[in-house]
Amino acid sequence: MNKSITGKKIIITGASGGLGAQFAMEIAKAGGIPILIARSLDKLEAVRRQIAETTGIEAFVYSADLLDEAALSGTFETILEKHERIDALINNAGVGKFDAVLDMDWSDLDRMFRLNVFAMIRTIQYMLPHFRKNSSGHIVNIISQAGKIATPKSAGYCASKHAMIGYSNVLRQEAREMGVQVTTVNVGPVRTDFFDKADPEGSYAKSVERYMLNPADVAVKVAGLLFTSRRELNMPWWMEFGSKMYQLIPGLMEKVLKSQFNKK
Questions:
Q1: If phi over 0 gives left and psi between -120 and 50 gives alpha, with beta otherwise, what is residue 206?
Q2: Which of 10, 26, 181, 248 could cross-link with 223 by S-S, CB 3.0 to 4.6 Å?
Q3: Which of 157, 167, 204, 246 is an active site residue?
Q4: Is position 126 annotated as part of the catalytic site?
């Protein structure tokens, strides 16, 4: 257990279910105070109750659409006014849609970039001045191995994740001078409801079922790296190894792993 979490207030976006809810539970188990943001207040309240019943920790919930600039601004203003000091931000909200380039719907692409990139950057812009003022803080961006390994039928999703990896790498260098740590978490497929929208037919989820990560395992790892100098967390290890090989010999990797790359 990461004892450095005790008493720390940690914002988690996309916290009404899936990985976000798991992060909140693990943080509470370690004595941290989760501050949860998502659209569905009912789901947030359910997570809050579960945390209270399991750990005795009081979590705080805020309903906001991350794509609504006014709502998002007001939510962060309220949080900072009420809680005075926030210790970490876990940027977890995201969405995906798998389609070939010729079949891609512009509204899907637009939504992926607005949520996976712009909303994530916006939350950082709200919190970074606060962290700089305190000369401490930790920003954890939940991204994806898709930002490192490009595969067919995921051009929009891969592009949005690649953008956030690049942004985070710059942010890390600049935030270090403020006493703020930045960590990117790049995971492969995780067993959550993400695939309900990304892969409505279920073919991809079925083909990678045996490789899927357990969200509780990911949450334990993320909770363990909070308030450390960890640069990246990459899961599973073999996918990270594959991404490094892809950077070195992309043509060969695309040829050798063609059938695997075309699972979508």
A1: alpha
A2: 26
A3: 157
A4: no
